[in-house]
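Worked example
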Amino acid sequence: MVSNVSILEEKINIHTNYDITLLSPIKCGGKVKYITFPSTLDEVIESIKFSKQNDLKLFILGGLTNTLVLDSGLDGLAISTKNLKGITVKDDVISAKCGESLSHVIQSAINNNLSGLEQLSGIPGTIGGALKGNAGSYNKAISDIFYSAEIVLPDLSIKKIYNSDDLFSYRASNLPKDSFIYSVSLRLNKVDDNKPLIKQREEYILKRKEVGQYDKPSLGCVFKNPTPLSAGLLIDKCGLKGLSYNGAVVSESHANFITVEKNTTANSYLTLANKVREEVFKRFGITLDYEINIMGQN
């Protein structure tokens, strides 16, 4: 049972029974029992402390651009990173608080004549989420340019970690368990002229538009590619484009995307995704792993 909520609300502004559709880009999902929106490191620590003192399960919510919160909601305390903003540049290193959008970090890098992020242009979400999931595209990943991160450990201590061979894998990072990513630093390449970078960024965004990535609300790629194969190609070969369930639809333009119509539920999205996994396994004997994060009880 949570106690002393009113006192802590004054310190870290706790919201109760918060509707996750207010944060989700696909406007579906249940309610979060408690949620905070810290804007400083101290407020992050106080939020984690509150979850520990009251034996609440802790959830970290970034932009939710690849996270499905099920209709059952989240029974615990969620920390939203949406107010943790700020970008600094020193020489060839760009640093950003976890809640900064990846697109803003890329634009800031280009503005400062720093190259190395262009291939990630158009990927939605936050820099914290990009690090957590080792986001990547066009043969480039965050792990290729990662320099360091400031994280809060479960014991509330603050640690700075640096890149290492065992820190990342495909679409995943091996950060200390239950740690909170507070800031991320990337080491890029200094260039004299940023005009080619601007052009490359526009070209990568155009490629995403051409395959319909932004046509309808989605969480991006649902499944990881089972190397060396393409999840989208396997789904397409099963003839699943256009398959729908209660407003969730396998995209006609990108088979590894599930788009949602108005009033679609998170559970309907998951039901369709599980059906796709089942069909791919039936035909190819391959179990697709989820690239999206799934939170809550089904």
Summary: The chain has three domains: 5-80, 87-196, 212-295.
